[in-house]
Amino acid sequence: MRILVRAKPGVKKAYxxxxxxxxxxxxxxxxxxxxxERAVEGRANRAIExxxxxxxNVLRSRVRIISGQASKEKVVEVM
Length: 79
Fold this sequence. Notes:
The chain is α+β, with helices and mostly antiparallel strands. It has one domain (2-78): Conserved Hypothetical Protein Mth637, Chain: A (2-Layer Sandwich), CATH 3.30.1200. It is built from 1 helix and 5 strands, in the order βββαββ. A 5-stranded mixed beta sheet has the order 2-3-1-5-4, with helices on one face. A hairpin with a 5-residue loop joins β4 (63-67) and β5 (73-78). The chain starts with a strand and ends with a strand.
């Protein structure tokens, strides 16, 4: 499954929240993922993958960012 993610790195309180009004594309699940890690050397991306894996209760190896590594808007695949 592919989900659309708006990343919020460097926040004090981490969370994963499903929302409906982030992107124009319909038919896809949209999430806001806030993580404590800053967007330095890929740390925030790894934390986002970890948070999504925990949210969907899957192994970390089954989650990967497939688009938007350097952007706040990402496409993430959960296998």
